[in-house]
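Much of what follows relies on a compact textual record of a protein's fold. A record is reproduced here so that you can trace the correspondence yourselves:
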Amino acid sequence: MIDILYSVSEIIIFLLIFFRGVSKMNKSELIDKIASETKITKTNALNVVEAVIDSIIEAAKNNEKVVLSGFGSFVVSNRKGRVGRNPQTGAKITIPASNVPRFSPGKIFKDSVK
């Protein structure tokens, strides 16, 4: 079990400050940064990142909305079925309805990247 040393709001503020000016970052770089900034091991940082991602995915599977105040919301939207065209042949095709994940940034996040 991982001891939580920081509140959700502290983590959100850290992420907002951290991502300001970052052009691209992969998962391992994020884990390294979290470990160094929070003084936890990389293994614990990896466990935290994976737990957050797994929790968001599990909530999406259950059609639940995940709201991280100030950072943003993860939600699943239903896209209706529609008629499209095959770009190579021009033939009409039926595109089935599907569920799609969406992210809406929160005010603090939007304001921090202006």
The beta strands are 66-68, 72-79, 82-85, 92-95, 98-105.
